[in-house]
Amino acid sequence: MLGRMSTKDPRAAGLARLASLAADETRAACLLALLDGRAWTAGELARHCRVAASTLSEHLGKLVAGGLLAEERQGRHRYVRLADARAAQLVEDLAALVAPDAAARPRTLRQSGAGSAMARGRTCYDHLAGRLGIAVTDALTARGLLRQDTGFALTDAGLRWFPAAGIALDRQGRRPLARACLDWTERRPHLAGVAGAALCRHALGAGWCVRIGSERAVKVTETGERALSELLGIEAAALR
Amino acid sequence: MLGRMSTKDPRAAGLARLASLAADETRAACLLALLDGRAWTAGELARHCRVAASTLSEHLGKLVAGGLLAEERQGRHRYVRLADARAAQLVEDLAALVAPDAAARPRTLRQSGAGSAMARGRTCYDHLAGRLGIAVTDALTARGLLRQDTGFALTDAGLRWFPAAGIALDRQGRRPLARACLDWTERRPHLAGVAGAALCRHALGAGWCVRIGSERAVKVTETGERALSELLGIEAAALR
DNA sequence: CGGACGTTTCGGTGAGCGCCGAAGTGTGCG
DNA sequence: CGCACACTTCGGCGCTCACCGAAACGTCCG
């Protein structure tokens, strides 16, 4: 239906082509996996999706051609990651809109175990999500560093807090400093954008939290509990 | 590929099913048309998309079942509209991400004429877009009523300005007061959310602008030019 | 009541596409 | 140099789905 001569609206054709990239279950699984913000090899994704390497290779070709993924070749490996923040935002939007259905069924024990780890804390592209992400966002709001009542933006106090906490904010580029990202386990917005990414990077770098397994789930360390308590008054109990 | 037993990730299956709704050119054209925020009949959409009524009926069935559209039956008519603000946001996101390609080609004279009217001013779901939307957003920002440098939110002054200008803001519900929506002609964010919708509703109600034809395009009236100039210091020249 | 009209259902058709395995290409390592 | 490994290309299979026209169903109106 896309191959016919475009006697139709070119904008509709473009939108359909873009959406069709995510309209396949295997490609959707790739996009969700890549929401951890890291680069995966083609082989890793093929095993993750349980399809032949040849099949996945074709999928990656389409996703890259469509602009959703960026690729980097290293030797005999092909690394892919989400192309940019806009591509990530699209996947986040789609995932958030799907959640109502998917939230209704924690499958096997193993999956529900992994699910609850994901619900406690995870990364979402390049920022924190899950109860951890919500706790941080709420703490920032309660301390007057982030405003949610009139939109979603840092306050002047918040603008000073980040550098003071040793977290640099890169104000170059068009990416917004703060952006709301709808959390698909908590069903409430958490902090994304430049500030969210900087905070997540710092949290992983300073050992506040560590990744669990190869998934997106993260676990708050004791160091992290102390730091979050001191800096933002987050009680460890809120993270469990 | 979707009909097989779901031995795969259920979240990926849900995302793929959602995306597949927009992955068809005809359905995409419907979603874009419905971005005007109004309800269309099945027949109107069929003519707009240039397909048989029977074909379009099937498309509407899928879009409604998928939760993107809401329908209302009136006599022998079937009215459909975008289901809610989240569905509209998804379509807006997709459209914005597509723009880079589509912006490159204003087709025939007639289309480019309609295109420039759309570029001057239009509605985007339920708020203002195009040069008009950008002008309003910029004016609000310049007057300290809206903050974009730290995210996207009304200021306290902005919170007072709306009621003072006779525009009520409904603060019930989960919809954010202010939200950035990427404009696909201007490539910059304009005001969406509760405040954007209220402003647009007021602008149409008070005769600041009127719709042109059956499309989304709107035209600023002389009354509107005066009001925008007095209230926000927007010069008429900026709207042409 | 009967015709006009908007919408829906149904059968049939053709095109697109996801999947695989086998064979081919290129890289790295012993 | 040659094997192992990661990835890609290709041919073929089977399923899905958008499309149409014809016919059925409702509603409105004269």
From TrEMBL, chains A, B:
GO biological process terms, semicolon-separated: response to cadmium ion; response to lead ion
Organism name: Streptomyces pilosus
Domain HTH arsR-type: 7-102
SUPFAM superfamilies named among the record's database cross-references: Winged helix' DNA-binding domain (SSF46785)
Superkingdom of the organism of origin: Bacteria
Pfam families recorded: HTH_20
Cross-referenced PROSITE patterns: HTH_ARSR_2
A single GO molecular function term of this UniProt record: DNA-binding transcription factor activity
Cited CDD domains: HTH_ARSR
Protein name: Transcriptional regulator
Gene3D superfamilies: Winged helix-like DNA-binding domain superfamily/Winged helix DNA-binding domain
UniProt cross-references to InterPro entries, sorted A to Z: ArsR-like_HTH, HTH_ArsR_DNA-bd_dom, HTH_Metal-responsive_Reg, WH-like_DNA-bd_sf, WH_DNA-bd_sf
PANTHER family from the UniProt entry: TRANSCRIPTIONAL REGULATOR-RELATED (PTHR39168), TRANSCRIPTIONAL REGULATORY PROTEIN (PTHR39168:SF1)
